[in-house]
Amino acid sequence: MRRSYLDYAMSVIVSRALPDVRDGLKPVHRRILYAMKEGGYDYNRPYRKSARIVGDVMGQYHPHGDAAIYDAMVRMAQYFSMRVKLVDGQGNFGSMDGDPPAAMRYTEARLARVASEALLEDIDRDTVDFQDNYDETTREPTVLPARFPNLLVNGAGGIAVGMATNVPPHDLAEVIDACCAYVDDPNVSVDDLMQYVPGPDFPTGGVVIGRKGIRDAYHTGRGSILVRGKTHFEDLGKDRKAIVISEVPYQVNKARMVERIAELVRDKGIEGISDLRDESDRDGLRVVIECSRGAQHEVVLNQLYKHTPLQTTFGVNLLALNGGRPEMLSLKDVIAAFVAFRQEVIRRRTAYELRRARERAHTLAGLAVAVANIDEVIQLIRHAPNPESARQGLLERAWPAAEVAPLIGIIDEPGHRVADDGTYKLSEAQAKAILDLRLHRLTGLEREKIEGELKEIVDKIQEYLEILRSREKLMAVLREELVQAKTKYADGRRTELQDAEFEQDDEALIPREEMVVTVSHAGYVKRVPLSAYRAQRRGGKGRSGMSTRDEDFVSQVFVCDTHTPVLFFSSRGMAYKLKVYRLPAGQPASRGKHVRNLLPLEQDETISTAMPLPEDEDAWGDMFAMFATASGNVRRNSLSDFTNVKANGKIAMKLDEGDRLVSVRVAEGGQDVLLASLRGKAVRFPVTDVRVFKGRDSTGVRGMRLGGDDQVISMSILHHVQVTTDEREAYLRYATQKRRQANGEGTGEETGLTPESAATAEISADRLRELEAHEELLLTVGDDGFGKLTPAYEYRITSRGTQGITAMDLARGKGSAQMIAAFPVDPNDQVMVVTDGGQLIRCPVQGIRIAGRNTRGVRLLRVAQGERVVAVAHLGEQDIEEAAEAAEAQGGAVADPAVADTTPPADAPDTGGDAPDPEQDS
């Protein structure tokens, strides 16, 4: 089996898929061209049916499928596939739109002139080796005596077994110039040859960007070349431009490219295009893309380059058969192999011509001797009884060479020289030629012609001998023939070469503009220019920030510029990254686009966190991403682990079966992590308690021990401040009194509350000021609509992995409540509370009571029977300014925050911070 497979592999490599470096052809192409030459289908003959040609090839040389032979012939006739066409086709031979050619019974073809004169010429002069065909009924050439490096000029592509080749086409004139440079100096370097061959030249034109890929390909045989279509802009008037594509990259299906552009426009993948049409005709290619009014046409063009086949990469793999073996070749290797091959072709052709010239000279020498002795020859023939006697008489007699002797001396044939006595003996061939001589050749004029032809042939023999004796003379012939081919067949470069520094970066063309990015609870996202909000600030009422439906509401709003990267972390533990300019643009009141249309999310996958990051990715190395899952696991990674996120996402955290990612926050080493659970527990521990993980495929470490069906609902990052129990209790009383005074509830001595007046034996005035400077208020909300503010100092720092301490008293009241939100807020912030019945309230934080941990709080939203709070969103001070009216456009009822009921009901006890609050540690 091993032997059979190796035989098959070598057959594919040597006899099917890889071109020969000498003529640049695979066996099927070589057989097609040779069969057309043998069949008389030359460039100066009438066209013949393609089916006839395919039949000749299949019947004599290539015993494979007729479709494979026809496809190979069709490609050699396509102007958009071959840099120099080798087959002249008549009829439908396909198009750049991917249209297939007509059936072989309809099309006609013949050899192109360049194939007949530059690839097949001299094939009948013993220039190349021949071998038996597949059934040994005829002979076929092993290679064609090509006069130019066809491998480079027309390129090649093929997949063998374990190897593949992909050679780009080049300009004929440039390649021949490089060959001449190598002929002049065999020690020329690849860099010197690149002065003549600066890069590929594709039949469809286009623009090659950058030189590095070309340099790599020419030096090593492998390289990646960036190719773009050729475009220009046309004015449409009224601040509108049109992008006109006049050339497409090599091997790009134009129709599929236009379809791809249309798909991106429909799916909002590319914005700023108002119309698209293909105006190509027999005069040339023309695809018109009209830009919308106000759209930046340079940006649109760069988006087309990035997302469509208007820009492609040609992977060079310069693999060819050299000496019958597959070999990776450099530019110089290909040229050197071709020049060596041409030397052998010219040597063999010259030796063949020398043999033919000597044979003719030998015959002419005999005729010349006979003419010089014409009377004696005629007399001998006349008296001979039969032709055989005449022949014997001519052979036996020594004839005077007379004036022919010097010419015979130049021929200098062994065994056929003039004797010392000036006589010459004829050979069998000469005697036969004399007997076949017609009488009219005996006239004086004909005798002069024989002598003239003999002298001419003698000159040729001398020339052939000089070529064979002198390498310099042979190389001069080689060079001259190369220049003739260049003069006759070169038609000028089509592909433009541009240096990489002139390439415009896609992002560089996108203007920097402040954007308001809005993410809704249901997963809708959009970006709106900040100026769209500022333009209406004087109206007093503000404007709608997002049109939402049902119980949807704005969950995240942040302001950044168009170049800011945003990391999206999903509940499945995946990370996705988009620049802000990639987010769908919208109006202040529009809903936006669902994130599922932007990211490859699964059916039940949702976005847990949208995190704007610094644009300078070098600064990410000093920052950390802290992950928290519903099962209580946490993990800390360097943010630099997410600099390279592909379009299909990147695994951010490995999750156990049934677990989900709850939150991701940027953290620093000097901060604390606060995890809150559904059952009203919370644990606070230093960020440094979680080591930095090097990989992203682990589930992390235990951050909080959960009991029963409890699960983590949120993670917050807090300042790291150590306080004692007495300081916590004292500060809680101080914060409560200060809030009441700010709300106008305080009287008497509390009106002038200061740190000095509030200081007690447990805490000094300076310590109060210090704690107040680092104050963080944690909002905790239950699904029954109750909530409270608690200073973060109340949550003492413990070790990770514990069950934590009470964050909210859920046992009080009717029924069994659950804590659904816990996060830090600022006194000037607002929060959005929404129920599963569509009830929603935007409530200012300033109106929420400060209370201890082990309390229930006050009513934030009055929920109906059987209704529960399902989500709480945090709107920062800046977010309130930019999206203040976002909730008013949704379908549910909205409570006015100005008259929000933030006082406890009559049946609810006042659970303010004045009551004792024992730490109920687990």
UniProtKB/TrEMBL annotation:
Sequence segments annotated as region (Disordered): 738-758, 884-922
Keyword set, alphabetical order: ATP-binding, Coiled coil, Cytoplasm, DNA-binding, Isomerase, Nucleotide-binding, Topoisomerase
SUPFAM superfamilies recorded: GyrA/ParC C-terminal domain-like, Type II DNA topoisomerase
InterPro entries referenced in this protein's UniProt entry, alphabetically: GyrA (IPR005743), GyrA/parC_rep (IPR006691), Gyrase/topoIV_suA_C (IPR035516), Topo_IIA-like_dom_sf (IPR013760), Topo_IIA_A/C_ab (IPR013758), Topo_IIA_A_a_sf (IPR013757), Topo_IIA_dom_A (IPR002205), Type_II_DNA_Topoisomerases (IPR050220)
Subcellular localization(s) per the UniProt record: Cytoplasm
Motif (GyrA-box): 536-542
Coiled-coil region: 447-488
Catalysed transformations (reactions): ATP-dependent breakage, passage and rejoining of double-stranded DNA
PROSITE patterns: TOPO_IIA
Keyword presence, Transcription regulation: no
Principal EC category: isomerase
Residue ranges crossing the lipid bilayer per the database entry: none
Pfam family, one: DNA_topoisoIV
Domain Topo IIA-type catalytic, first and last residues per copy: 18-515
Record: active site: Y106
EC numbers on record: 5.6.2.2
Ranges annotated as biased composition (Low complexity): 886-915
Note: Few gyrases are as efficient as E.coli at forming negative supercoils. Not all organisms have 2 type II topoisomerases; in organisms with a single type II topoisomerase this enzyme also has to decatenate newly replicated chromosomes.
Quaternary data: Heterotetramer, composed of two GyrA and two GyrB chains. In the heterotetramer, GyrA contains the active site tyrosine that forms a transient covalent intermediate with DNA, while GyrB binds cofactors and catalyzes ATP hydrolysis.
Similarity comment: family membership: Belongs to the type II topoisomerase GyrA/ParC subunit family.
NCBIfam families per the UniProt record, alphabetical: gyrA, PRK05560.1, PRK05561.1
Entry function: A type II topoisomerase that negatively supercoils closed circular double-stranded (ds) DNA in an ATP-dependent manner to modulate DNA topology and maintain chromosomes in an underwound state. Negative supercoiling favors strand separation, and DNA replication, transcription, recombination and repair, all of which involve strand separation. Also able to catalyze the interconversion of other topological isomers of dsDNA rings, including catenanes and knotted rings. Type II topoisomerases break and join 2 DNA strands simultaneously in an ATP-dependent manner.
Protein name (record): DNA gyrase subunit A
Origin organism lineage: Bacteria, Pseudomonadati, Pseudomonadota, Alphaproteobacteria, Rhodospirillales
